[in-house]
Specification:
With 384 residues, the chain is an alpha+beta fold. The protein is built from 12 helices and 10 strands.
């Protein structure tokens, strides 16, 4: 090369300076973005609210089809999933869904305490959930640990339909934002657990009478549909359709005392747990359960018409048909039934609605005692 065409030392210094300035500007942009993420997280009322608000911020820096925060539950045997999606046709899992951790990428992150990146789920299906993710059309997947005091308490995930999508620089930034959010999420999770314990029935895991009393008190004031939805999102952790109305079912286990006398109180407790599990499976994210007392339970379905609920009650019956608490006994010898009363109306009449459904349930209970049949569920539709 001719000496006249070689870059001078002064020119090289200018290039180096420009690169250095560019790097500083990128670092400053990242820092400002991280600060905005932190501020949004601090201002959020719940994890669901935070994810909805932070989704657009994340989109400024990363592309993704699915963004999730999974928090450990039950001694980290399960994760509670909170997820948002950005691609049409791709369904997010219902908020609050549980995922088993064992033999998954989540378990790997919990144990290794570091980021895991699979650049192509088609070529490398390392964990049991990878095949499912690939079948959903996802190719690149990042799992980032959420840590507090050197322990992993959750995992942040980003997934997209393209292989080999995320760069090392992007992965580094993901780690940084996870570190920023970890303290906030840990505090939110701890607060939610403490609050949930105060509202939760220890035996069945559904909400308790204390929660019902607070809900009745709150809904006596004039509220619009958005205020009710926001309140339920904060307390229950599920986003329900905005509505000033609800349907309500009052459920009572038929001949529960006889069941206890025959099989013992431990078997009776197990029956209640299985029944609530069946009800919650039927509900999905359409509503929530409250233990009213003893073997009596409420099911609240925000924004749903009672007629639609009753049209779907046969699915609940199928769930209960399969309950088997005592392995040594034939299924038919331990089957139980429910008496159900239902009503619908406005939230501000919640206390009255509970009483109305209770009366309908007792009308059904009288029929059940007068006309004992070996059926799984007898519902007095006329009384509803």
């Amino acid at each position: 090369m001719d000496a006249s065409t070689q870059p001078s030392g002064e020119h090289l210094d200018i290039v180096k300076d420009e690169r250095y300035v560019f790097m500083l500007l990128e670092e400053l942009k990242n820092y400002e973005w991280l600060e905005r993420c932190t501020q949004v997280a601090l201002e959020s009322k719940s994890i669901i609210d935070m994810m909805q608000r932070i989704k657009d911020l994340f989109f400024e820096r990363f592309e993704f089809d699915r963004f999730g925060i999974l928090l450990g539950a039950f001694h980290h045997r399960y994760c509670v999933i909170h997820e948002v999606v950005t691609r049409n046709g791709l369904q997010a899992l219902p908020s609050g869904s549980l995922m088993i951790v064992k033999n998954t990428g989540l378990e790997w992150v919990y144990q290794q305490k570091k980021l895991h990146y699979n650049p192509d789920l088609m070529e490398n299906q390392q964990f049991i959930e990878d095949e499912t993710m690939y079948k959903l059309g996802l190719r690149s997947m990042v799992r980032i640990p959420l840590m507090f005091q050197q322990e992993v308490f959750g995992v942040m995930t980003l997934k997209i339909q393209y292989p080999n999508f995320y760069s090392p620089t992007e992965l580094t930034l993901m780690n940084k934002v996870a570190q920023r959010l970890s303290g906030i999420l840990y505090s939110a999770q701890l607060y939610y657990q403490i609050r949930r314990q105060a509202y939760t029935d220890a035996l069945t895991g559904c909400y308790n009478r204390h929660f019902l009393t607070e809900l009745e008190t709150y809904t006596t004031q004039p509220l619009n549909s958005n205020e009710i939805t926001d309140y339920l999102e904060e307390k229950v952790g599920v986003v329900f359709p905005p509505s000033e109305k609800l349907s309500l079912l009052f459920m009572d286990v038929d001949r529960f005392k006889d069941y206890n006398d025959r099989f013992g109180h431990a078997a009776g407790d197990e029956l209640l747990r299985h029944l609530i599990s069946a009800v919650n499976h039927w509900l999905a994210d359409r509503g929530f359960t409250i233990r009213f007392g003893g073997d009596e339970f409420l099911v609240l379905l925000p924004g749903l018409n009672l007629e639609d609920v009753l049209d779907d009650i046969s699915r609940l019956q199928e769930n209960i048909n399969n309950i088997r608490c005592i392995p040594d006994l034939p299924l038919h010898a331990q089957q139980t039934s429910l008496s159900i009363g239902g009503t619908e109306g406005e939230w501000m009449r919640l206390k009255d609605l509970v009483n109305e459904a209770d009366q309908h349930m007792y009308e059904q209970k009288k029929i059940s005692h007068r006309n004992f049949r070996d059926e799984n569920m007898d519902v007095n539709w006329e009384s509803l």
